[in-house]
Amino acid sequence: MNNVNKTLYIPLYGKSYVSKKGLFLNDKKAEEIWEAEGFCLKGKSKSKWLAYYMGVRSRVFDEWVTERMTDGEDAVVIHIGCGLDSRAIRIGESGHKWYDVDFAEVIEERKKYYSETDNYKMLAGDARDTAWLEAIPETGHAIVVMEGVSMYMTPEELRGLSESLCNHFARVNLLMDCYSVFAAKMSKYKNPINDVGVTKVYGIDDPRIIERGDFTYVTEHEMTPQRYIDELRGFERFIFGKLYAGGFAKKLYRLFEFEKKDVPV
Asked: What span, in angstroms and rounded, lies between the C-alpha atoms of 48 and 44?
């Protein structure tokens, strides 16, 4: 895999780690894949604090998808940059069509551990080149998640993606996490992704720069809600809260929701 694709092992390790500890996520699939893959992480990428953050972040995304699926009974779910994540298993398809999308070599690796069904499909594709949308016959409502992806795309590429989604679907709900511009600049000096060879990333301070026409910014979500921080105890809860929550964390990481509403003609 290229260096960007290797970053998928960092959240995989984190979700496996917290699942084994009974924190935030019940993710037996992550545990299974991590044991089988045996990828060697080093340095900050194998930090327990980062593992806790990956677990909490994924839980927040899971909750958002679950809520949107309840609100949109006919919606399709699209996980862009799915890596080896088991979100479709963790929260269930609930009768929805679900598409996991990633680079061809990632999907090839993914198919060792996941099987397609009538409702669940894996698509090889690049978020910057949305030809893969042609493989999705549904054009009504899409619930789209991008977890740990936007920082590898320029703002122009993100706008191109949003435009393609809006051209294909009548209604779109999108949730994505972003680095701030400051975090992106600092990333080449201190970032766990450096441990797998990635140094070039991008940041966003104003989510409105991604807006296109009727695709608009909705709100910012809490990346590390206190209710999950409280699952930790004592010293760990204190340190994690200082590192990954509050004002300091917001200077580095943001979680933005966007929407294209279906306006009847």
From this structure: 9
* 265 vs 263: CA distance, rounded Å: 6
Its pTM stands at 0.91
135 lies in some domain: yes
How far is residue 48's CA from residue 212's CA, in Å, rounded to a whole number?
Answer: 39
Domain with 203 in it: 3-260
Q: Report d(CA 30, CA 142) in Å as an integer.
A: 26
**Residue among 5, 62, 11, 13 at smallest CA distance from 35:** 13
As given in the structure block, the two tokens for residue 244 are 């990954």
> Residue 194 is part of a domain; what is its CATH number?
3.40.50.150
Residue 265 lies in a domain: no
Three-state secondary-structure class, residue 253: strand
Tally Cβ neighbours within 10 Å of residue 201: 20
Number of domains in the chain: 1
DSSP-based three-state secondary structure for 4: helix
DSSP secondary structure, 97-161, as one string: -EEEEE-HHHHHHHTTT----SSEEEEE-BTTBGGGGGG----SEEEEEESS-GGGS-HHHHHHH
What are the φ and ψ backbone dihedral angles of 131, each rounded to 5 degrees?
A: -60, -25
27-73 pLDDT, tens per residue? 999 999 999 876 766 666 678 888 999 999 999 999 999 999 999 88
Residue 217 domain flag: yes
